[in-house]
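Session log. Operator J.P. requested a structure for one protein chain; no other inputs attached. Running the standard single-chain path with token output.
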Amino acid sequence: MGGWSNAARQGTWTDVGRADRATRRKPRGWTSADVAVLVVAFVIRWELGLAFLALKLWHQASGYDGSVFSFARMKWNALVVLTRAMLDGGVLPFSLNLGPKSSGNLAFDAWRRGELERIEAERLKLQTAEREFTSYRDDLLQARDREAFDRFMQARKS
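Structure written below.
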């Protein structure tokens, strides 16, 4: 629990368990919309129906008062925040680190970090140049189309 509360103090992600307990009330039953979505999901693909059924049962077991869709959105956002924290090298409630491993040589690690930052800056610069070129090309195409349209209108009038 220390990892969760420590990370919550740092603002890395929210304490999902505490947020769940704060919203617990009488479990929400099945609405007609839930049944309709379940039937349609099973008609489309049985896997979708099973996934929705599992989500609805999880929703009821947690005691969340909102709709099953807002519950799914809340859980998805918590997962996104946790994943971002994991990728940014933040404090994790478990020991899973997907970032580059340390080589054991601080000078090499610093050089590698600098090179990765330089490459990222180059990638962003290329993306910017690509967007500018696309905009320039679109402007040229629009000008050419406008010129062709104007020639058509002149030919039509005469």
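Operator note: The chain has two domains: 2-87, 104-158.
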